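Inverse folding, one chain.
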């Protein structure tokens, strides 16, 4: 996966604004010959009840973001979320929700 610097910076800034809660958002870009390219990170509202340990994206928010990307000829490439004050690996909450 390749992430443009501006998209990476947008994710970092989103996580800093959301701290100490988890942030979440959509990765927008393209997939060509198995190579994922992220051109934009779109911050989405974390709708989880306990935003310090979980993230939840409303289906309508994700569908709207996907539709907007497709209207620009892009794709929803993935989802991002932060782990404030925790390791950058799957948390027990992530594993439970997967």
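Residues assigned per position:
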């Amino acid at each position: 996966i390749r992430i443009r610097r501006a998209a990476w910076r947008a994710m970092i800034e989103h996580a800093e604004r959301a701290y100490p809660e988890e942030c979440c958002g959509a990765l927008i870009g393209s997939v060509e010959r198995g190579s994922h390219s992220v051109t934009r990170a779109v911050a989405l509202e974390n709708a989880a009840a306990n935003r310090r340990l979980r993230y939840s994206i409303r289906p309508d928010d994700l569908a709207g973001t996907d539709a907007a990307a497709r209207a620009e000829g892009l794709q929803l490439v993935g989802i991002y979320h932060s782990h404030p004050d925790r390791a950058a690996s799957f948390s027990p909450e992530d594993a439970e929700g997967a």
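DSSP finds three helices and four strands in the chain. The two ends are 21 Å apart (CA to CA).
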